[in-house]
Amino acid sequence: MQQEMGQLNIQLNNLMLENRRAERTLRKENEKVETEIEYLLQNFDSEMEEKQADLELNQTEYERLEEESRGLEKPFSVLEVDYNQIMERRRLAEEKRQMEMKELELKIKAAILAQAWWRGYSTRKALKNKSLTNKASKNKDKGAKAKKGKGKKK
User: Fold this and answer.
1) DSSP string, 66-96
2) Whole-number Å distance between alpha carbons of 53 and 60
3) What is the mean pLDDT of residues 130-140?
């Protein structure tokens, strides 16, 4: 029995020794895992801080651009009104110019018609006068010859 107890004690000591070794190994592994977790957390925190800083910088830049955009909207609206007025004036001037051109064309056509009518009238009158003059001179010539041949009237 003593011997059995001695064997059991040796077995117990061996098991305790193995358990201590296993515990030491597990503690080392646990420490490595905890170190890795700590490293990952620190890395995550630093990345998040960097991203947060970028986000804040972008937010500030966005707000600045928004403010600048609002500042430019007022002059833009004034310029847009001016532009629209200028374009309206140009459109009206173009319409006026086109109407004046049509009116000028109409006046030119009327002048051409009046001139053509006057030329025709003058030409016809001149031809008529020439014709009358020719007839009168022919009649005078004929009348003079006729009178010479007839003698005196009683």
Assistant:
1) HHHHHHHHHHHHHHHHHHHHHHHHHHHHHHH
2) 10
3) 75
